[in-house]
Design goal:
259 residues; mainly beta; UDP N-Acetylglucosamine Acyltransferase, domain 1; nine-stranded mixed sheet; eight-stranded mixed sheet; 10% helix
């Protein structure tokens, strides 16, 4: 498969590949290997550096506007039938790595803040199989991030990660599951360690006031100040259902003994 490498600028070819952007950026590399691939940038998008590899066919990469934050930097791989959608006012401190293949998607909401060294990987890059059954054991899975989420230094989101709005994923954490809104999740694997939190974007050292012991010293972004909604995982739902079933079964047996 012949690769076509172009800089970020308006582009289209006879294979249906296209770049829809009013930006022209020399510090960039867009590689098309298949057909029907699209890179779409909002007219108010601001990009410091971008690398996009379209390895297959019919993939979409879409990046929103940056009106209220600085330019972002991306290193994106989009495989066959895959999708990467980045919302408005998403910031990156360094180049953020994203990989989506095998028809998966990585969807990032608005006002998301990435720190340094972050990666979002819907796939593992290489297949792993069970030698007895031949079945694949590391299927690719989509990733989603809600609005106003902070992904801290070197945190990584793997396939199956879903982050509710207003949450924080801690320093060097690895997440591969659902975490609800307005909570802190940290560790390897990441788990919820605090609920009912809200974070604010202004930097503690670069903005005023110099001390912020409580919320009376700031102007809260109230749309993101919410209590955490409880979410039960599939194993937790199964466990709760089993407890309820056993309780009902015990009541039935008790009534039978009485009669």
């Amino acid at each position: 498969m012949t690769a076509k490498i172009v800089p970020l600028a308006p582009y289209s070819d006879d294979k249906g590949n296209s770049i829809d952007s009013n930006l022209s950026l020399e510090k960039s590399r867009i590689t098309f290997k298949g057909s029907g691939n699209r890179l779409i940038l909002h007219e108010s998008a601001r990009i410091a550096n971008i690398i996009v590899n379209f390895d297959g066919n019919n993939a979409l990469v879409q990046i929103g506007a940056n009106r209220n934050v600085g330019p972002s930097s991306w290193n994106i791989r989009a495989g066959e039938d895959s999708k990467v959608v980045i919302g408005n006012d998403v910031s990156t401190t360094s180049m953020c790595v994203i990989s989506a293949v095998e028809g998966t998607s990585v969807v990032i909401g608005n006002d998301v803040m990435f720190a340094t060294g972050n990666q979002l990987r819907a796939d593992d890059g290489h297949a792993i199989y069970d030698v007895v059954t031949g079945n694949r054991v590391n299927d690719s899975k989509s990733i989603s991030i809600g609005d106003h989420v902070w992904i801290a230094y070197e945190a990584c989101l793997l396939g199956g990660a879903h982050v509710g709005g207003g949450s924080v994923i801690g320093f060097r954490s690895v997440l591969n599951r659902h975490v609800p809104n307005n909570c802190i999740a940290a560790g390897i694997p990441a788990r919820v360690i605090r609920e009912n939190i809200a974070w604010e974007r202004p930097h503690l050292s670069l903005t005023s006031p110099p001390y912020r012991p409580d919320s009376s010293h700031i102007t809260p972004t109230l749309q993101y100040w919410k209590t955490t909604e409880k979410h039960l995982s599939a194993p937790a739902i199964k466990k709760r259902s089993r407890l309820i079933f056993n309780k009902i079964k015990g009541l039935i047996n008790f009534d039978r003994k009485k009669s």
